[in-house]
Structure formats: C-alpha cells, structure tokens
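Researcher: Here's my situation. A collaborator sent me these components and asked whether they could plausibly form a single complex. I don't have experimental data yet, so a predicted model of the whole assembly would be a useful starting point for our discussion.
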Amino acid sequence: MVVGPSTPVSDQVPLGEEPTEAAAPGRVIEGRSLGQIAWRRLKRDRVAMAGALVIILLVLMALLAPLIVKWLGQDPNGFHTDKIDPATQQPTSTFPFGAFDSKHLMGVEPPFGRDIFSRVVYGARISLLIAFVATLLSVIIGASLGIIAGFFGGWVDWLISRAMDLFLAFPLLVFAIALAGVIPDRAFGLSGDTLRIVLLIFIIGFFNWGYIARIIRGQALSLREKEFVDAARSLGARGPYILVREMLPNLIAPILIYATLLIPTNILFEAALSFLGVGIRPPTATWGGMLSEAVRYYTLPHFMFWPGIAIFVTVLAFNLFGDGLRDALDPKTR
Amino acid sequence: MKRRLAAGVAAGVALTLGLSACGGGTGENKSDTSGNNASTTAAFNVAVDKVFNPSDKKGGVMKFAISSDWDSTDPGDTYYGLSWNLARLYTRALVMFKVAPGTASNEVVGDLAEDVGTPSDGGKTWTYKLREGLKYEDGTPILAKDVEYAVSRSLEKATLVNGPTYFDDFLDLKGYKGPYSDKGKDNPAIDTPDDRTIVFHLKKPYGGFDYFAQLPSTAPVPQAKDTGVKYKEHPVSSGPYMFKSYSAGKGFTLVRNPNWDPSTDPNRKALPDQYDVAIGVNADDVDNQIIAGTIQVDIAGTGVQPAALGRVLGDPTLKARADNPYALRLNYTSINPKVAPLDNIECRKAVMYAADRTLYQQAYGGPLAGGDIATGLLPPGIPGFQKLSVYPAGPDNKGDLAAAKDALQKCGQPNGFATNMAYRAERPKEKALAEALQQSLGRVGIKLTLKGFPTGDYFSLYAGKPSYRNGNKLGLMSNSWGADWNDGFGFLSQICDGRVIRETGGSSNLSVNIPEVNTMIDQAAAETDVNKRNPMWAAIDKRVMEEAVILPGVWAKQVSLRGTETTNVFVNDQYGMYDYLAMGLK
C-alpha cells in the first residue's frame, strides 16, 4: 500500500484496501472494504454459492439432527429386525435400494435393520464437528507459528521450520491408529465418545498445522519487506504490534482459503480413521464407520451408497466453496 | 484350540475352534459310500450327512483355493483345521478319524498303525503297531523311529511354533526338549522296540490318547530329510500325493506318489490325479469362481462371504449346491465375576435372562450363516451333549425381561447397572454382537460401554489378562471356542478349567474358575471308559451354566458351496468342512 503524502500516516487506513483499486484514478472509494469486494465477487460465482448453500444445509442438518430424526421417528441406533431376512441377512424389501419405504428413506442396514437415513444424518454431526474444530486447531497453530517464523526469521524461523518438517514427515495415520488403540476409556476428565471426539480432533488438528504454517510463513516473509511494514517500524511500532495489526490482516485471505480447503481433507481423514475402526466407538454412527461395515455387504449397494454420497457431497461442496473463496479474495491467482 | 481362517474383507486371521465327536472305536472298515448313505440329487444340505455324487472314478485336476495363507504345510507345525484336513493327502498319521459322513467319522481307525492304540499301565502307556509295506515317496520304508522323530521335532516350539502342545504337555519327557535342542539324545517318552512298534509314556493317565495320535504331527518324518522350518516346502510324503511344486504364500501342487500302496491304506480313495492349491485369491472372488465352476473348493472351510450369501440362498440352483454344516464351535460371551456388580450371581443371571438370543444369532449371520441359538456350552455334535435350559430366554428367545428384572432386584440393582463389553475390533460379527447386547441389555437398564481391542492382542494383553480385564472393569467379553476334535475334553478343558488362567495372560478362559468344576474335569479326563466319560462332560457343562459366567450365543454353522465338478462330497464332522481326502472329480 502506498502511503501518499496527503494521506494521514495511519496504520489503519491502508489495511483493508487493495492497492490496485485504490490507485485507480478518479474513483471514489466509499466504504468498500476488501471483504465487500470479495463478497461481490463471490456472489457472482454460482458454483461457489451452490457449495456454500450445501454447506449451510449440511450444518443445519447436523445441528437439527435430533429434531429431524424425531420427526421421522427412527432412532439411529434402533433395530428393525423385521426388515431383514435372518437367513440371507438381506433387507426383505425387493426394491433396489433395500427395504426402502416411507419410514426408512434410505433403507435399512444389515444385520439389525438400523435406519440408514438417521445414521447418515447423525453421522454429519461427528464428521462436521471433528472437521471444523480440527481445522480451527490447525489454523490457529499453523498461522501463529507461520507468522512468527516468517516475521522474525533467524533462529526462530529455523526452529519452527524444522518443526514443520518434522510434522510434515510424521506418519500421521499410523500414529493415529496406534494412539486411538491405546487410549484409555477415561482420560483428562473425559470419557466415552466425548473423549474419542476430542482425541480425534487433537490428532487430526495438531498434526496438520505444518502445511498452513509453511504457506503463511512464505507470505509473511514477503510481507515483512513491504513498505507499510517498514513505515510502521520506522514510526516506532514494535514486533507484536506489527505482527497483529500490520501483518495478520493481510494474511486473513490465505488463512481463510486454506482453512476451507483443509476441512474436506479432515472429513476424509476422519472417515478413514472410522473406516479403520479407530474412530468413534460403536454404535455411534459415522460416515466412515458405515462405509467400513458396508464393505462386507458390497452386493447391497444402498448400504454403501448413502454414507459414500454424503462424504462425496460434503467434500465437493467445501472444495467448490473454497475455490470460489480463493478466487474472490485473491483474484491474481485466478 | 484349532484355528480357522476368517476370510472376511475386514477381518484378518481368526483363531478358531475345533470340533469334537466321540471316539475310541476300533476297526478298519473302508469308508462306506454307498446305499442309503448317499445321494445323487443336488439339494440344500445333502452333503451334511450323506455322500453326494458317490464315485470311484479316478483322474482330473482338483482346484482348491483360499484367500489367505495358513500357518504351515509342515505336519508338525500346523494348527488349522483346514490344514489337518488337507495334510491327510500327503501324510499319514498313526491313526485317523474314519473318512465318512455324519457321526461315523467319530470313530478313530488305524492309518499308519494297524489299529488304534493299546493302553496299559492304567492309561499311562500307549502302544501302536505299524502296518507292513509302508513307504515314503522315494521308496524307502517308513519306520517306527521316523514317527518318534516326527513327534519329537514337533516338541521344538521355538522352531516349529504353530502346532498344538498336547505332546509337550502329556508325554513324560523328563526334561527332553527335542532333537534340535538335545542333539543325539533319545526321547525318553517314546520307545521303538522294533521297526513297527511305537510306545508312548505319559505323565498321567489319559483315556483319549488316540486323539493325540491322529494329529498330523505323528506323520513320519525321516530325520535325514528334516530341514526345520523349510520342511514345509516339501514334506516327505507318506500318503497318496506328494509335493510337486511349492511357492510360499501363492500355492502348491500335489501329484500322485508312485510309492503309495493302496493295499496298505484302507481309508483313502485317492481319486484326482493332481491337486492345485491357490493361496491368496480374494475371498469374494473365491465364492464367485466356485459359483462359476473354475474352482472346486474354498479350503478355508468357513463358508461363503456375506456378500455371496444372499445370492446363494436366493437362487434355487445355487442353494441346491449349498450345505449348512455345524462348525462345532461355540460363540459366546464371558461374564466376568471379578467385576462389580457382576460378582453377584443374581446380576449375572440378569444378563443371562435379558440377552436377546435372536439378536445374538443375527449378529453372527442368522440361522444359516451364523448358527443355532446355543443353550449350553457343548455343541450338539459332541458325544454326551445334553440340551440344557438353565436360563430360558422366553418363548421367542428374545429374552425373559421379567426374570431379568427379578434378578436385578435380588442383586440390589433394581434399576440396572453399567459395565463394559470387550470385543475384537477387527471382527465385524463381534462388533455387531456388542451392539446387539448393548441394545438388549439396555431394556432392563444394564448399560454397556463397548470397547474394541486389537484381535492379535485380545487374549495376551487385554481381555485374556486378568489384571487388565479386572482393572479396566471388562464385565462382558466376546469369545469363541471350538475343540481340536469332537470330545468333551477338547471342548471344555481349556475354557472351563480355572487353572489354565494365567496372570500373564493368553488363556481363552476369561471367566470360569469353579473349584468343583476343576475337580470334575480331572475326573473326566482320567476316565478311560468313553460311555462313562461323556456324561461327565455334560455334567460340567451344566455346572458352569448354573454359575452364569458364560452367556452362550450360537453354535456356529456356515453356508458352504459344493464345486460343480466334484464327486464324493460330504462334510467331515471332525473338521466341520468338506472332507478333502474323499473328494473326486466327474
């Protein structure tokens, strides 16, 4: 940002504006912040907006899961053995999507006839909760360490960069399997599913900060050489102030973009852990866990189809929205 | 405990169980495969107690397949039922179970030996006499000292790690460790007064020694040809077939042994000219290939995969090719009396009454692929079996909730209680069982927290380790057992004898330690009269049930598919799978 002679020297004015637009001659810029500009761009991107809509619906579905399930009357863990033929272990309905009827919108699963729709709806809670919070954790750790490394440089940078290398090289899946296997039933004052969820969030979030830290560090390295940082420094601003007030606002865009793209990765990772049986304990429904059970019954495609499509749609929605957000916030990368 | 392969997509290798039947018969009748005991009409279950498509036609290449490898083809180093079944093609043990369908296979007959063993010294000494004219594949004669050597080398558990430990446990070895560790020393527990006589000396009397003598580890091994762990690549044949090629983990080929003399072997028909065994074929692909006819038998012998089950049972033509034999195995749940409040028998009874047995059955695959609802420990095929009704689960087998609530009242927990249920995480059926029990016990307020443990360490580190299971309050633990052969000793001794529980872990007995039962087991094991012995096992079964420390689940059954080209097909009750020795080709 150019700090022109007529502009009061302030560290607040330059913050929100894009240099190119601000420099356009003759245009009056009235309160159009970076956010507003990005929003206008985003609104024009139909694909991204569709992704956002799906995400909102999914979040609503997860939040309202108990109500939805209560309304349809099928407990996600309730057995409907009358819907399954005991000898063949197949749903009794001859409809292609297995025991599909008005009560069981997506059919029932062998061997106990649990309602797949209710389980998919409840599975969204686990998947989204873990993905969101784990992403938040990764972003907080990664962005903080990335800015610090990029801004201070020297031995701080060296230390943090080596830590990044370490975490990037970490055999995360193997570690997650091992840790989830040995974790006791009660730890840190938590127990049962709560403990498993917290643990999964920790594993997924804590070991994934390396990527985002690396990206942010690179951005911070170039930012700290920018004139406005020099200006702030020459006016006597000190490290922490520059970090938070000068650098961070300029890094919001890459952080947001990266977070949106990390969420689907984390959903897949959680599904993979559940698929391998080290995630949430049964009978709590998770998409990955349902998929893993469905593999044994691959001749009943509906059993695998619904949790599979749920993961697919969620990941796709986040990816589309994330792409759109990047285009909107950072048009140069388009 | 004999092992079996679990060929599921998600499951790994499963420990198994064995089978049992009565034994101790004598006689050497050639297996009878004619008359009323045979059928040529394809129908569901026809090969369970009859010979399907009886034939004496020789020739053809028999194609066997299996999804994962088993422990070893070395007769002294194997503990899988399928392997014992298969080993009879290329080895001959001292004695064998009669090759016949139904209960006829309970009879033990001579194989290398002319007849079953002769006990003396009150059951502490057993003598066998070999037939004349026995030869190896290279034409050299089979001598009694080769049998002694074979049994001695099977004691070397540091080298040959897989086999059963009956000879280690029962022979009066006087410190002898085996021919690798104690080079040049003679095994003091086995004498060979001449080339055709072999005498075993036991530490204590045991009436069922013929069951040990039928183990593949009594098949002769010439000392000069023993290559230790590599012997499995070419076990020297004493049977009708010998190894032509062997590829570790991929398969092997058996061809006719020119030096096998049918006149010395009344038990084997040896119909095919060759056996091709393919290892590592995808489990679902094995099912599909059997349906298509390009493979004749899935030698894992554990039935079709869940994916093929609906297809097989839903198609009348395929169903007519299927059989539904008992695996003579009990899938059950151990109830830990060392964990409060299950230390109170009334609370244990509440679990017994509240469990929905139909859900238990459903978890294991339903009435055909899963098994029959069990009312006691001994499966119906075991001699001495008595149907028990200690804790009836209501008229529809869905549990007796009134009785359960009554028991909870007496236990002082009228509103139920909370406890943990352990299961093997890699086993989908056990996971389903845990969910089923959680559901059905929840009806009377017994709340289960489900805990999956790694299958490989389930007995050594978790449920099987007393300090772990008691310290972590594992109240219920899924479990499974089958004996190595059809007899009460093999079935009950390892899961009902409290003295086999080790503080260091590893025992399959997770919950039973009743001094009275321990004594009853000793008495039954020493009894040499089979007709007195069998009722004694039934009494032990009842006594353990009364203590409510085992919730019986299902007596396992499976849905197996006959190959399109096979003849002489029947299920051998001793293995709970098709008899691989008798089968021929059209």
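Model: Some features of this prediction you could bring to your collaborator: The interface with chain A takes residues 8-10, 284, 305-311, 313-314, 358-359, 361-363, 365-369, 420, 425-426, 428, 431-432, 434-436, 438-439, 449-452, 454, 472 of chain B (CB under 8 Å). DSSP finds 16 helices and 25 strands in chain B.
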